[in-house]
Specification:
single chain, 218 residues, alpha/beta, Glutaconate Coenzyme A-transferase, ten-stranded mixed sheet
Length: 218
C-alpha cells in the first residue's frame, strides 16, 4: 500500500539532524513540522520571514496573521524570530539553511528538479524555490511517484522548466525512498505492501536497488 502524505512527511522527518536549520516548502513538506523526532532540535525557517516555526495549530487556535510561505496558519516556538523577507533570503543565499525539503512535479535521475511551472498554466512566479535549490547544502524532495495520469515523475530528464540543476540528493515518494547517485535513482526503502517490481515499472529514469533495500517501518 502506497504511503499517504502524512507518512511521507513522517519518513522525511527522520532525516533531520540535531542543530539543523531547515526550510520546508509548500505542500507535503510543511507536514514535516508535525513529526520532528523527540530529542532532535531543529530550527524551521519560512522564507516569508520566520525562524522557529512550530507545528500546525489546533483547530480554533489559528492566528490569521501567523502564516508560512504557503499562506497556511502556523505556530511559533519560544525564542522564534520574525523579520522581513529580504533578511530571510539573505540567510538562504548565504547558505545558512542546512536542509531544504521541497515538493516537485518532476525529478531527473541526475538530480535536476522541476517544481514551479507547467507551461500554459498561470503561476504567480517561482517564489523562493530557485534560491533554495541553489543555496541549500542538502535537498530532499517529497512527491508522488506518478502524476494523475499514472506517468512516472522520476525521469531520465525533466520535461518541465527547471528550478535547479543536479541538486536533489534524496527523494521520498509514496512508493519508497531513493538516493540520487551518479548512476541514477537508488532505491533504499520501499513502502509497506509495495513491490520492487512496481517501483521498477513506475520509474522512468535509471534505477538500481540497494542490496540492503528494506520495507519502510512506521
Amino acid at each position: 500500500m502506497a504511503l499517504n502524505k502524512e507518512q511521507i512527511a513522517q519518513r522525511i522527518a527522520r532525516e533531520l539532524q540535531d542543530g539543523f536549520y531547515v526550510n520546508l516548502g509548500i505542500g507535503i513538506p510543511t507536514l514535516v513540522a508535525n513529526y520532528i523526532p523527540e530529542g532532535v532540535n531543529v530550527v524551521l525557517q519560512s522564507e516569508n520571514g520566520l525562524l522557529g516555526m512550530g507545528p500546525f495549530p489546533y483547530e480554533g487556535e489559528e492566528d490569521a496573521d501567523m502564516i508560512n510561505a504557503g499562506k497556511q496558519t502556523i505556530t511559533k516556538l519560544p525564542g522564534s524570530a520574525i523579520f522581513d523577507s529580504a533578511m530571510s533570503f539573505g540567510m538562504i543565499r548565504a547558505g545558512k539553511v542546512h536542509l531544504t525539503v521541497l515538493g516537485a512535479m518532476e525529478v531527473a535521475d541526475n538530480g535536476d528538479i522541476a517544481n514551479w511551472k507547467i507551461p500554459g498554466k498561470m503561476v504567480k512566479g517561482m517564489g523562493g524555490a530557485m534560491d533554495l535549490v541553489a543555496a541549500a547544502e542538502n535537498i530532499i524532495v517529497a512527491m508522488q511517484h506518478t502524476n494523475p495520469k499514472g506517468e512516472s515523475k522520476l525521469l531520465p530528464r525533466c520535461t518541465l522548466p527547471l528550478t535547479g540543476v543536479r541538486c536533489v540528493k534524496k527523494i521520498v515518494t509514496d512508493l519508497g525512498v531513493f538516493d540520487v547517485t551518479p548512476d541514477g535513482f537508488r532505491c533504499l526503502e520501499y513502502a509497506p505492501g509495495v513491490t520492487i517490481e512496481e517501483i521498477k515499472q513506475k520509474t522512468a529514469g535509471r534505477l538500481s536497488i540497494a542490496e540492503d533495500a528494506r520495507e519502510m517501518a512506521f
